[in-house]
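Quick one - first record:
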Amino acid sequence: MLEIVHQKPNPVGEFTRRIMQTRGTCIEEVVREHVLPLLPAKSLCRFKAVCRGWNQWISSPFLAHKQAMLFQRISGFFCQKPGYGCHFIPLDPKTHGMRDPYLTFMPGPVNIRSICNGLLCVQGVDDTYYICNPVTKYWKMLPNPSFYHGPGTVISLAFEPSMFNFTENFELVCAVPVTDAGCIVFEIFSSRSRTWRASDDICFELANATFIGDACYRDGSAYWVVDCGVILVFNLKIDHYSIIQLPDGSCPNGIVTEMHGELCYVAVLREGADLAIHIYGGMDMNSRHRICIPWACPGNVLRQVRLMGCVDGDVLLVSIGDAVISHCVSTGETRMLGVDRMRGECTMMRYLPYVNSLVDVNELPELCDNLESMEFRP
C-alpha cells in the first residue's frame, strides 16, 4: 500500500460538526448531502450497498456532478509504458483502487495521452481519440480531427468541474507540428460543439523542436516542456500561445506541476556523483527548492529516476528503479511508499496523476434543459 504523509487536513470532520450545529438536522441527511461528495469514487461505489436510498443517490448524476466538483485530490498514478500497456498505482488501494486498472473495458488497446480531473483521453491503434472514466467504465469516441496528428503531436485534456458545468463539458487541445509549413498548429476539440477547430494563433518559433513528457493543465492553460529549454503554453480562454524560458542550467527532462499554489517546473540534475531535484516556480521560474537524493542507491543512474508528480501541493513522488518514494518539501521527510513491480526494466515509463471521480462522460441534455428548475445545494 502506498501511504502519503503530511496530507492536508480532511475537511469532512470539521464540516460535519459545523453542519450538525444546525437545529433539527438529520445525521443521515448531513452525510448524504455534505459528506459523500467529499469521498473518492471507490468508497462511494462500496457505499451503494448500505441501503436502497444510498444506492439511488450515489448512482444519480447529481451526486456524480457534485463529487467531481468537490473531490479533486490525486488518488494515484496511471503508468503508461511505451505502446499500449498501462497499469494503476493507487495511493491507498482500499479507497482509491481501480476495478480495471488496465483499461480492458475500452474497445481495443489504447495509449493514455492526457488526464484531467478524473477523465482520461486515450488513443487507439487507429489513432482515434476516446474520452473515458475508468471508474464508471464509460467512454465516448471523438470525431477525427482535420489535421494529421502524427507522432510528434502532444495533447492536453482540459476539464474543470464547476457548479454550472453540469453536462461535464471539456476541451482537448492538440499542438500539432506541421513539418511542411514549418510551424505548430493548435487544433482544439470542444464537447459543446462536438467539432474540431484550428486556432488562429500559430507558433513558428518551435517548428523543429521536440516535446518532452506530458502536458499539465492549470487555470485554463496547457503547458508542454520542449527540448530546447522552454515551456510552450496555450491559453484556451484567450486562444493564444506563449513561451516560458526555463532557467539556465536546468535540463528539459523535468515535469510541470502545481506546488504550493503556483506553477512549478521540477527536474532531476546530476551534481558530480550525486543527484538532486531542483524545483523552479512562478512564471519567471525562479529557484524554489533543492532536494538532494541520498536515498538513491549508488547503482541508480539518472535515467532510472522518474518524477511522478506532486500530491496535495507539497509531497513530491519519485520513482527510482521500481521503488516509489515520497518527499515532503516543507518538512523534508522522506518515506518509502512501495514497489512498482510492473515497471520492470522499462526506463521510459510515464506517470500521469489521476483523481478518483464519478464524473460522467455521457451527455445529459434532458437534465441540462431543466437545470434552471432544479434546486442544487453546493
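second record:
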Amino acid sequence: MQSIMMQVMDKGRFQKPAATLSLMAGQTVELRCKGNKIGWSYPAYLDTFKDSRLSVKQHERYGQLTLVNSTSADTGEFSCWAQLCNGYICRRDEAKTGSTYILFTEKGELFVPSPSYFDVVYLNPDRQAVVPCRVTVLSAKVTLHREFPAKEIPANGTDIIYDMKRGFVYLQPHSEHQGVVYCRAEAGGKSQISVKYHLLYVEVPSGPPSTTILASSNKVKGGDDVSVLCTVLGEPDVEVEFRWIFPGQKDERPVTIQDTWRLIHRGLGHTTRISQSVITVEDFETIDAGYYICTAQNLQGQTTVATTVEFS
C-alpha cells in the first residue's frame, strides 16, 4: 500500500516521512497528503485545547497540516486518509492513507508530559489496560515499577508488554495488578520518573447497565409518601442516565426525582460506581397506583426495570 503523506523539508524539499520521526521540540512540522478531500487525525492533546499552533487546510490537490512551536506534549501519531464522498456522506479510502509517529524531544523531558500528577487506570478483566507513559526519545529504556512494596514489574511480553506508542499494556488485567505504579526512563546517562498511576481493579462486566429497582413499599395508603429507587452498579468511569415512566405522568402529577452517584470500594480494592435515581410521590392517590418503570442508559445500551405500587 502506497503512502500519500509527504513531509515538507526546508528549502521546499519533500520527503516521505519514516514510520517514526524524531524531531526537536520547537520545530515546525508541515505534512501534506495528496487528494482533494483529506481527513486527518493527530494527538488528542492538540484537540483538547483547540490549539492555535495547529492548522489543517484543504487545498485543491492536497491537504496540509502545520504545527508550529511544537512541544514534547505533541508526541504521537499523525495520520491522513483520502475520503470517498457521495454527497455529504464520506468514507475512508483504505487504499490511500499515510501516517507517521512523531517524537518531539525536549531538553529535560524524557516522558510525554501528563496533565496531572496522578492518574487512575482501571483494570477490566475483559480488556487490555494501558499505563500511558510514553517517551519522547526513541532510544530511551523504559521500566515499570511498583511503589509499594518497591520493585520493578517485568514487562515479559506475555502478561505485560511495552509499546512505545501506548505505554505499558496489561494484556489480561487481574486483581493482583492493583496498586500504585510509575515508569522510569533512561537515555543518554539521564533518568527520569513519570507521574504515578493508581491501578484499580473493576469487577463489574462492561455492557448495558446492571439495574435493580425497589419501592419503599408496594402497597401504599392514601395520603402516604412512597419512593422508588433505581440502582446501577457499574464501571467507575461509565456515566449512567436515568429516565422514569410513572402512572401519574399523563396527569402531570408533581413528583421529585433525584439522581446521584458515588464510588464504592468493595473488599480487595474492587472499585464500583453506584448510580441511583429516586422518584418520590407525596400524598399517594389512586392515580399514582400502577407501574413505575426505570430505564438506565450508558454508552453500551440500556436496561429497563419495573415495579408495581398498589393502593391499599
